[in-house]
What we know:
Oligomer: heterodimer
CATH architecture of the largest domain in chain B: 3-Layer(aba) Sandwich
Order of helices and strands of chain B: HHHEHHEHEHEHHEEHEEEHHHHH
CATH topology of the largest domain in chain A: Fe-only Hydrogenase (Larger Subunit), Chain L, domain 3
Distance between the termini of chain B: 38 Å
Number of helices of chain B: 15
Number of strands of chain A: 17
Strand order of the largest sheet of chain B: 6-5-9-7-8
Distance between the termini of chain A: 46 Å
Structural class of chain A: alpha/beta
Largest interface: A-B, 38 and 37 residues
Radius of gyration of chain A: 25 Å
Helix content of chain B: 40-55%
CATH architecture of the largest domain in chain A: 3-Layer(aba) Sandwich
Strand content of chain B: 5-15%
Number of domains of chain A: 4
Helix content of chain A: 25-40%
Amino acid sequence: MAEIVKINIDGIALEVTKGTSILDAAKSVNVKIPTLCYHEDLCVAGNCRVCVVEVEGRKNLVASCAAPAEQGMVIKTTTPKVRRARTDIISLLVSEHNTQCTTCYRSTNCELQSLAAEYNVDSERYLSVLKPNIQVDKSSYSIEKDDSKCVRCQRCVRTCAELQHVNAITVAHKGRDMKISTFMELPMNEVVCVNCGQCVTHCPTGALTERRYYHEIWEAIGDPDKHVVINTAPSVRVALGEMLGYPVGTRVTGKMVTALKKIGFDSVLDTDFTADLTIIEEGHEFLQRVTKALKHKEKVALPMITSCSPGWVKFIEHMYPDHLDHLSPCKSPHQMFGALTKTFYAQKIGVDPSKIVSVAAMPCAAKKFEANRPEMKSSGYQDVDAGLTTREIGQMIKQSGLDFVNLPDSNYDSYMGESSGAAVIFGATGGVMEAALRTVYEVVTGREVPFKNLAITPVRGLEGIKEATIKLENVVPEYSFLEGAEVKVAIAHGLKNARVIMDQIKNGTSPYLFIEIMACPGGCIGGGGQPIPTNDEIRKKRIAAIYAEDEGMPIRKSHEVPEIKKIYETYLEKPLGHKSHELLHTHYKKRNRY
Amino acid sequence: MENLKRVDLIFGAYTNEKYKVLESTLKKSSEQIITEMINSGLKGRGGAGFLTGLKWKFTAQESEPTKYVVCNADEGEPGTFKDREILTKVPRKVFSGMAICGKAIGAKKGYMYLRGEYQYLLPDLMAELDVYHEHAKRFNHDFTIEIRMGSGAYICGEESALFESIEGKRGEPRNKPPYPTVSGVFSKPTVINNVETFVNAVMIMKYGAEEFKKLGTSDSRGSKVFSISGDTPKAGIHELELGMTLADFVAEFGDGDTKAVQVGGASGFCVPRKKFNETIIGFEGVPTGGSMMLFNSSRSMYNVLHNYLDFFEEESCGQCTPCRVGCQQLLKGIHAVKKGEKPSSYLNQLLQLSDTMKITAKCGLGQSVANSFSSIVENFKEEMIY
């Protein structure tokens, strides 16, 4: 039985569980205390000191995020003493900040800017102590780091350590020289960074941003010689609206397609098409491995792990280089898309692939790095010319001057515009597993998965590691060796959870056959390229939108999509066939841990 | 010298038999030791002045079975060098004190966190530790001591930053609560005391609380080892009874031209000559971890303050805003006033800033910058401006 304490906040008497922070207690009675270093996803740091409040009987103010409510506390959040101190602290932060907000990518979505405006701080109050000659680190394909805009809240450091177990960014030096840096202060492209971009979505200011490529895309669109194709990932359509005036969790698929067409993309296609293709390829790969292992008693790497998340792929390359054979060889959907765009699609529409610019609209920062991997050139060209984040797409739509809210809906273009609900749910953690099970179960048993409305609920939700067991009964003759087998699967999201799964594999104790791993908490809907902020409440709403989109689709299973069937008939020949290997599969690289 | 009483408690000769006080104290119960400590009224000698017996009692009361004793030998406060002397001359007393604390709170392991610059003391300390461990074994006292080296960061003298450092992490202060008595090193209940405090504990066990209480005042029991430096003909280590006035102190140690005394190091207070008579050195007046720096009329207090702020600006861990940026602003600010780039009224704004730092900084470092800043700026304003 948790102990209850009685406290009083700004004249409101309330009871909270002992140990509740003053900040959370205040929130429960609708008293808003400003914060900066605090983030719902992360452990409490208590280092910005913006959230200080006055506790009766104490000389010093206390940081409400870090201080637990104690019996009888009388707390005041807006006394002159508190306001003076907060204003002072915000002024100090401004005094070490690069205040060129007019040219900042995060302007109007910056927590320091909002605080400074809210407290109307005087920029002349203190002398500038901004370090001179700070160079922006633009070495990474995915992430830009501008220390002149850093408030040293360490949200990125905590994100990288706690959520991702990567520790690419860390604190260096002390005192006036204290900064957020990397191992040996190396540039971002030389350290063990998986490019997931979670640091970017957790950064309160413009210190960490994705490397932006939309200028080049605008140029390409304006070039009459270029044929610019864009494919949009499933989770973009449920989050883009947040940047354009819609509440969280609004699906804006049709308007997004219209906007992209109006912006001037020659063809607006759906990454879902190659998500479905991934299921066909990965599903068959899985069945092939299981057949080899169980029927022919061959030694194959099981469990098999999904490879759609490039942040996760780079993580395993760095951290578990001896276990790369567990990864499915399938490229991530947008890389399949890129390869097909400059081969199959180019052939179909009769355009020289050298004139095609292939763009991927992604919830992801790691796709930018992935697009630039040297092995991603199976079409003979760089398969994906640019990966843009949801934020960049939102920015482009703003720049276009379109009245987004009042746009009519449009459908995706063809070829490669058709898809299923199974592809849409790729955007949420558990989605790839669910999509794969919908197909694999049917291939093995000839029947639909035994879940109401095809919703495989055990694999859904925000739990860090999810497990499910699917029993195979009355299987088709080809898979008779699987009769009665219980297929144990797992889903992990957030790389700290991936580590748990991988340690099991490393120790030989993994009980699973098939595992889905996504680098970002919540899966792609919580990706490093998604609108800021992201927290669990927002993740849940985006996930709900994803499943609603799935339910609204006429086709819910990857293997039933006519265009998918057709591409195998007319182009790819068969799953795991020669062309698939050439265009849709990849290989991985062992990387160092430092 | 009639108003100052010299004491020879801390540096007094060892007992004839090694670890004799420890041996006899181990025959007492945990409660007896703690009661004796509380009765003595001993307050921590690091400067903050928390009642040592109470700290031990709180830790002893925790139900968690694993507990630790930590000796803070990171002596980093500018002008303080008494722990070095204690560790050089009477390390046996320090280890005895830690072992007694271990008995009192039920800990099996102690750490001494030794200042990086004191690396040269390590061989001698290790040799004495061998002697200690040999005796502890003979006394059936299951308490081992390990020495961990600091790397030269001032902030690691702050207890929670020190724990982080022992744990192998970056030395940054933690949020409090929880306090060390509940969650200290390795998140276990921990007693952390200054080197001198542990020696005092041994003295209390040797002579008894009543005898100890005869020294000092009701608020400041016992004697204190002072590190005296600056414009003084008697620079060095002096063990004195607590409770003297600063006037008496200056009469003994000053050079006849003392303008100000910095009591308690860079994070302490600067007392100007006009306040010498009314200032008591002790917890009822101006407390000190031992540092006493004397300045005569040839010294610029602007330079003194500049020097302190330079130090803090570099030695702040940098995590919390008020301390990291505040120290830079104070330093840059007094410089701007001195050069005439800011009006003299800007000093008031800086004083307000130092107040903000005092009430909002995360740890004692940031909170105490205001001590020297406001006491120097308020008492020597002309020197700041002209």
